[in-house]
UniProtKB/TrEMBL annotation:
Keyword annotations: Cell membrane, G-protein coupled receptor, Membrane, Olfaction, Receptor, Sensory transduction, Transducer, Transmembrane, Transmembrane helix
Membrane-crossing segments per the record: 29-50, 100-120, 132-151, 192-217, 229-251, 263-284
Protein's name according to its UniProt entry: Olfactory receptor
SUPFAM superfamilies noted in UniProt: Family A G protein-coupled receptor-like
Species of the source: Capra hircus
Length: 306
């Protein structure tokens, strides 16, 4: 399969400027990002193992959560290794093809995660508003279709955006004031339109789901029901608030020289920090997940001969 950018601008290389204006922070930044990336990889892969190993977690919510963990693992792995390379060995160049591939996969994963969170909001809506019909309404077939739809939409949008960037329009300076080829690093009207449409649609699904959830919670007569409903949605609400909050901040910042540092910091948040936080958010607030972790740790400890 031939990618549209393979025969264009083959000799072009970009220079990822990253945090080069702060040479005294290269080592501290490397240590901080390496630690966060390690926690992200261990946390997200660990969450997938935990969900697969405990039959009690074989529910629609955790099915979607396992895919969210997979997306977070892949997303943080698209940009972070190159960022660590820039900070460690000061190798800042990236080929045109490499830049376009990094952009394509990063954009695919970002849009897919955006809609995965929307699907999880719909799942919480069904769980709270129709608890007796939850297992019927959220059938394995429907869950698989919803997940397949998010991946398909993310890939299609990213392909369209990347094709709009494949024309040899990179004249002049080849320096990118970023540490990766994604989002604000490359400007395109097509990118802006599709990204905005995806953001608006996913937010509408989330808002509609939570409006119905809030109405249902208000009508609950018992305090126990209120606490259970809130506990059901708390982790997901925390995740979407952080994820969409950072994205909306980026939309509000003009792409100018004075805003480059803010854009870099915000990008660090959603490429490294958010993927690290998601497994912590879901594990610390869930007794089944914590119990599975304890069992896995005990099994590992007792499996070693004394």
């Amino acid at each position: 399969m031939a990618y549209p950018w393979e025969n264009q601008s083959a000799g072009i290389t970009f220079v990822l400027l990253g945090f080069s204006e702060y040479p005294q922070l290269q080592v501290p930044l490397f240590l901080a990002f390496f630690t966060a990336y390690t926690v992200s990889v261990v946390g997200n892969l660990g969450m997938i193992v935990i969900i697969r190993s405990n039959p009690k977690l074989h529910t629609p919510m955790y099915f979607f959560l396992s895919h969210l963990s997979f997306l977070d693992f892949c997303y943080s792995s698209i940009t972070t290794p190159k960022l660590l390379e820039i900070l460690l060995v000061d190798r800042r160049t990236i080929s045109y093809v490499g830049c376009m591939m990094q952009f394509f996969f990063g954009c695919t994963l970002a849009i897919t995660e955006m809609f995965m969170l929307a699907v999880m909001a719909y799942d919480r809506f069904v769980a709270v508003c129709n608890p007796l019909l939850y297992t019927v309404a959220m059938s394995p077939k429907l869950c698989s279709l919803l997940v397949a739809g998010t991946y398909t939409w993310g890939g299609s949008c990213s392909w369209t955006i990347t094709c709009s960037l494949s024309e040899p329009s990179f004249c002049g300076s080849n320096g990118i004031h970023h540490f990766g080829c994604e989002y604000s690093a490359i400007v395109s009207m097509t990118r802006f339109i599709i990204s905005t449409l995806s953001e608006v649609c996913s937010l509408l699904i989330i808002l509609a789901s939570y409006i119905f959830i809030i109405v249902t919670i208000i009508k609950m007569p018992s305090a126990g029901g209120l606490r259970k409903a809130f506990s059901t949605c708390a982790s997901h609400l925390t995740t979407i608030t952080i994820f969409h909050g950072v994205i909306l901040l980026l939309y509000c910042v003009p792409n100018s020289r004075s805003s480059w540092l803010f854009i870099k910091v915000a990008t660090v948040l959603y490429t490294i920090v958010i993927p690290m936080l998601n497994p912590l958010i879901y594990s610390l607030r869930n007794n089944d997940v914590k119990e599975t972790i304890r069992k896995l740790v005990k099994a590992k400890m007792f499996s070693h001969p004394m």
